[in-house]
Design goal:
This protein has 220 residues and is an alpha/beta fold. It has eight helices and six strands. The structure holds NADP nicotinamide-adenine-dinucleotide phosphate. NADP nicotinamide-adenine-dinucleotide phosphate binds next to strand 1, helix 1 and strand 4.
Length: 220
């Protein structure tokens, strides 16, 4: 059987927004991916001090955001895994779930700068192709230098995704929501309603623990 190309769009998604979606769709189209799996992080050891909504809530928001794209799915494997989230563990799980298929990890190119410090970086580069989106063409020379360094050191396969720059960030969305400003056109309407409805990112942040909570709050 012909191997499939599986895109992995990992992220804290706090919250998911249009740049995440466009990045995944651009990668899918340019590299002929058969599907893209969005994987919200579980416990992010680098963001432990951030006030991050539960995995269930971020998963629910991702599901709303990707609902109209038949190539996109969302997985709970990281939020259901105990302990800190590491990409290498996710790749091992996906290898078991999709034997013989090719894995493509999609990310912003900024992550290339630190990726060699990620847990078991060599194994990560062995197991997947990296698809990195360049936000600013002026950064391309530095990023290409970095690509070559990682290729030489880890035999990494890193390819750049052509990506229309979108100045949307989760941080900006959170700040806007906290100060009551509009986030319309930054993320799908269904997500806007969901986030505003429950004041997810207001100063009175409430951490909803599970899907049952979500169902209750969505009815209000
Ligand atoms: P995030 O903040 O939600 O962002 C998700 C991805 O979207 C990132 O690659 C980010 O790239 C990109 N992105 C966000 N806004 C963008 C924009 N306007 N234009 C283009 N790209 C944009 O998630 P994250 O916390 O960075 O985590 C990303 C993934 O890396 C997750 O799967 C996480 O588990 C993994 N990770 C793994 C380790 C490890 O295994 N040790 C360590 C750190 C992260 P930028 O990075 O360029 O912002």
């Amino acid at each position: 059987m012909k191997s499939r190309k599986i895109g992995i769009m990992g992220g804290t998604f706090n919250p998911i927004h249009y740049a995440h979606l466009l990045l995944a769709e651009s990668a899918r189209e340019q590299f002929g991916l058969d599907r893209v799996i969005f994987i919200p992080t579980g416990c992010s050891y680098l963001k432990q001090n951030d006030n991050i909504p539960s995995g269930d809530i971020r998963y629910q928001l991702v599901k709303l955001a990707i609902a109209d794209n038949p190539y996109f799915t969302c997985s709970r494997i990281e939020i259901d895994r105990e302990g800190n989230t590491y990409t290498i563990d996710t790749l091992k799980d996906l290898e078991k779930m999709y034997p013989g298929d090719e894995l493509y990890f999609i990310m912003g190119a900024d992550s290339l700068m630190m990726m060699d410090k990620w847990k078991d970086a060599q194994d990560i580069f062995n197991k997947c192709v990296i698809l990195a989106a360049v936000r600013d063409d002026n950064e391309l020379p530095d990023l290409d230098k970095r690509r070559i360094e990682l290729t030489d050191k880890f035999k990494a396969d890193i390819r750049f995704v052509q990506f229309k720059r979108m100045d949307i960030s989760s941080t900006d969305i959170r700040n806007r929501l906290a100060s009551g400003r509009s986030v319309k056109y930054m993320l799908p309407d269904d997500c806007v309603e969901f986030a505003c409805l429950k004041n997810l990112y207001s100063t009175n942040f409430i951490d909803h623990k599970d899907d049952e909570d979500i169902k209750v709050y969505r009815k209000e």
